[in-house]
Structure formats: C-alpha cells, structure tokens
Automatic annotation (TrEMBL):
Transaldolase is important for the balance of metabolites in the pentose-phosphate pathway. It comes from Microbulbifer harenosus. It catalyses: D-sedoheptulose 7-phosphate + D-glyceraldehyde 3-phosphate = D-erythrose 4-phosphate + beta-D-fructose 6-phosphate. It is found in: Cytoplasm. This is Transaldolase. GO terms for molecular function: transaldolase activity. The lineage of its organism: Bacteria, Pseudomonadati, Pseudomonadota, Gammaproteobacteria, Cellvibrionales.
C-alpha cells in the first residue's frame, strides 16, 4: 500500500480543498472549505455556473445580494462535495463575525437552513468558527441545537480546553502555521517532524482529550509537509491539501508510527475554564495570539475577494 492508503487505515482523511475534481481523485472521508479555498475554486472556469446561479438566487431574495450569494455559493459547493464524500463538509461562518457571538449563531443557522433547503441534512455539515471566546460560545449554543461545529484557527491548549468543555464536535488545531511562526521567531530552519512545534502542539491536545475522555474530535490541519502528517498518523482526522495527498499517494514507503490513543486516564478539571482565564492564557501565548489574529485577517481578506468576484460577475 502507498502511504495514503496506510494513513486511511489509521486516521480519517479529509480533503482540505473546495476543488471538487481534486476531491474525486483522492476519495477522502470528508472535505473542509474556508473563504480562501472557495475564492480559489470560484476562479476556475468550471465553477462559473455556480457563481451565476448563486447570484440569480440572491437577486430574487431582494436582500444583500452579494452577502447572500456568497453564502449560497458556499452551500452549493458544499452540496456538490457531499455528492462525492461519504461523510461531512465544513462550511465557514464569515470571519468578520469572529468576535460577535449572536451574529455568528444567526449566520450558522442561516447556513444550515440553506443546506436543508438544498436537501442536505444538518448531520452532514460542520459549521466552522474561529476559536475565539465568542466563536466557542456560539458553538456551545449551536451544538445544543443539533448544529455541529468545527472550531478552526486553533493554536493553543487553552483554546482546545475551552472547545472540549463547550461540547464542540470537532476542532482543527493547526500545525504548519505554528511551525511558520517558530521558524520566523527563532531563525531556525532545521525542525524535524519529531521536534516540529506544530506537531508537538497537536500531540499534546490529542493526548489531553484522550486521557480525559472528551468526545471532541481532533482533526490536525494546516500541514507544510508529509513528515508532519506521518507524525500525526492516528489522530482522529487529518485534513490535507491535494498536493500533499498526491505526495502520500506517490510514496510506497512505510508510514511512520504516529500517535496512539492509548494514554493514561486523567481527571477532568474540577472547574471549567473561565472567560477571563481563557483570555489571559491566550494573551500569554504570543504565537497563538498572533496566528489567530493573522488567520482571521486572512480569511476576511479572501472573503472580500470572493465578494468582489461575485460583484464583477453580476
């Protein structure tokens, strides 16, 4: 077996792309999208009809045409992805709402309604929210309504703890962006898969969850190389770009040992993490603070580009 086939025996593989053709090639269990991936997909010739259909639908509604068309496009691509993958698709709440709990909840409900109107049950959709305190709080409300959530832009232990205590379905702790920060801040360029700070962060979160019996799924994300992926083989899920999926598929070597969920049981904290403590711990972690802020800014920038693309297509 090639390494991709070996990996699928140990972790559920998720395609980190909005490109439907790429998803068909690699047969992942799930797929995850975000504004950056949707913007890239929307520029491809085969997606132009999606843009036109989304705009036509939004114009008939008579509201904010570009905002509604943007949501409709995300749902339309998500729906097509779900015709291919047997599992779930992740669709993201507008990153401009990352610090607005109420607006995030309303946006998520609207996305789910649009999916259901398109014939897709909520059980097949994960709503992506940034791992801010407001995003995690919104997720706790949505989860109680049967709307399952994927908390993204997660870089620290305090974010992971708060997500588990909120009953979030799935988290996407980032790997490569953590490595990027450490390379830039230390000047080092000799990190191995075993010393990679992003790999170590996800390993710590995975072991914390498993040792305390939290059901929240850990899905490693944002990979820079296949070595990081191999080091995290055995993680519940791994979301991987088409380029790295191809590299794994082309490699007939033996997959590295990776993670084990067989860890010593530990008690859960007696008192849940408070908002004040969450904010203090996040603030104390310069890497997590900077990468969370940068990630939100980048998603907003690509959301604006997507909206500009829709405006030009009118």
């Amino acid at each position: 077996m090639n390494k991709l086939e070996q990996l699928k025996q140990r972790s559920l593989v998720v395609a980190d792309t909005g490109d439907i053709e790429a998803i068909r090639r690699y047969h992942p269990q799930d797929a995850t999208t975000n504004p950056s991936l949707l913007y890239k997909a929307a520029q491809l010739p085969q997606y132009q009809q999606y843009l036109k259909d989304s705009l036509s639908w939004a114009e008939k509604r008579g509201g904010d045409v570009i905002a509604d068309a943007s949501m409709k496009l995300a749902v339309a691509i998500g729906r097509e992805i779900l015709q291919i993958v047997p599992g779930l698709v992740s669709t993201e709440v507008d990153a401009r709402l990352s610090f607005d709990t109420r607006a995030s909840i309303e946006y998520a409900r609207k996305l789910i309604t649009m999916y259901e109107e398109a014939g897709i049950g909520r059980e097949r959709v994960l709503i992506k929210l940034a791992s801010t305190w407001e995003g995690i709080t919104a997720a706790s409300v949505l989860e109680r309504e049967g709307i399952h959530c994927n908390l993204t832009l997660l870089f620290s232990q305090c974010q992971a703890v708060a997500c588990a205590e909120a009953g979030v379905t799935l988290i996407s702790p980032f790997v490569g962006r953590i490595l990027d920060w450490y390379k830039a801040s230390t000047g080092r360029d000799d990190y191995t898969a075993q010393s990679d700070p992003g790999v170590l962060s996800v390993t710590s979160i995975f072991e914390y969850y498993k040792s305390r019996g939290y059901p929240t799924i850990v899905m490693g994300a944002s990979f820079r190389n296949t070595g990081e992926i191999e080091a995290l083989a055995g993680c519940d899920k791994l979301t991987i770009s088409p380029q790295l999926l191809q590299e794994l598929q082309d490699d007939d070597g033996e997959l590295a040992s990776g993670l084990s969920s067989d860890v010593e049981s530990q008690p859960r904290p007696a008192v849940p993490l408070s908002e004040a403590e969450f904010r203090y711990q996040l603030n104390a972690d310069a890497m997590a603070t900077e990468k969370l802020a940068e990630g939100i800014r980048n998603f907003v920038a690509d959301q604006l580009k997507l909206e500009e693309l829709l405006q030009k297509a009118r």
